[in-house]
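forwarding from the other thread:

> can someone predict this with zinc ion?

sure thing
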Amino acid sequence: MKLPILAYGNKTLKVDCDAIATNSDDLNKLIDDMWETMEHAYGCGLAAPQVGETIQLFVVDSIVMYENADIDERKANFIEGDEGMRETFINARIIGKSDETWDEIEGCLSIPDIFKRVTRPWSITIEYLDRDFKAHTKTFHGTTARIIQHEYDHIRGVLFIDRLSAFTKKLIGTKLKKIMSGKIFTDYRMKQ
Ligand SMILES: [Zn+2]
């Protein structure tokens, strides 16, 4: 089932989300719905608070980014042998970040029509449970690491625009007000 995506301005997007204690049928249904919602909106990541659930859960698909990238972008944004991945992250914790950083344009399904450069570490190491509650510790790089960091921010109530300079944030002020007042068109269902 496709879920409405909460728009910028909704207070749920600012919540520091709770850890998930146990697996359940409801959780599995929510995960399925989040994948369906993200794919329908042509997103590459979606976090539970974006669909109104303040729990530490997000889904990431960097395969779609790899497939849509040209040869130069693949060379710049993916390491050798990395063709992206699809994964569900529960109770994730980033335990390591590279000193090396890079800038790339980001957007967010909750903040439509705004795309800005964000500086983030090139690599991260993350501990998480997958949807079967199997524990993993993995290191990701480039675009995959960027999407994970964007979604990881979401479950802590942080949006990518919070990482922009005061100057850039001022430039997008009018657009943000439009989103808050629901005066924006999207191909997917949004809710304020
Ligand atoms: Zn987002």
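Residues 120 and 146 are 7 Å apart (CA to CA). thats all i got for now
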